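Below is how a single chain appears once it has passed through the pipeline. First comes the sequence as given, then the structure the pipeline wrote out for it. We keep one example in the README because the format questions we get most often are answered faster by looking than by reading.
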Amino acid sequence: MASEPLPSSERSWIVNIGSIGGLIGLALEPSYCASKGAVVNLTRQVAVDYAPYKIHVNDVCPGFLATAMVRPFLEKTEKNDMVHALTQWPNVGILEDVAKVVLVLASLAGSWMTGSLLNVDGGFCAK
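Resulting structure:
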């Protein structure tokens, strides 16, 4: 299937993957939070510089997902209960939850978005 040409007003999209750890402090994760905080602020800064060129720059900030990084926590009952207690949604997210948001941000559906930080965290940061 051939893709439609972009309207002349749209140039390109950059979608960074940050983390809720870039928005809030996570216990015992100083380096992770610092690096993800840098991604969050870089997103905003680059969005400011490149908006005049119609280059969209946004950031997706996932929460706890069932990935190799979080799996050790999910395999231990106490930590699993803690992760679930911190998230408003009744289950932990999956990679597809983040991928769907990235698709929106990298399409004409997000044509007036730049410098945005979108939490995909099951309500973790809503508290």
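The mean pLDDT is 90.

See the next section for the split statistics.
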